[in-house]
Amino acid sequence: LGVETNATLVDLLSKSSDTNRYVRDIIFPTRGYSCTVDDTLALDDVELVIGSVCYKRVHPDHMSVYDFTYWTLEDTHPGNMVAAMEGEYNPIMKWMDLDNNVFLTYPSF
Length: 109
Prior knowledge:
Helix content: 10-25%
Largest sheet: 2 strands, antiparallel
Shape: elongated
Strand content: 5-15%
Distance between the termini: 35 Å
Number of strands: 2
């Protein structure tokens, strides 16, 4: 990373008020901060060590958990109604019904 980009990221991460010890959210670009033009694409895979802490840019939904209970109801997803009419498992609940397991591993390989 260029000097300007590195300084900006170090400053933003150091001053962040985010208290999550596993994921630190920062907003960039932010007024008053800039980055070296050549670093625009390099930010996709950036890793930065500040003190003894390593920061790595990840997808915005990394470590997110979503509740899809709503989609298990018969009238909320068209596939649920079709499956019911054909005597098949509810496609959303199928994994729980077949495996008796509330976790869906994705990808499965």
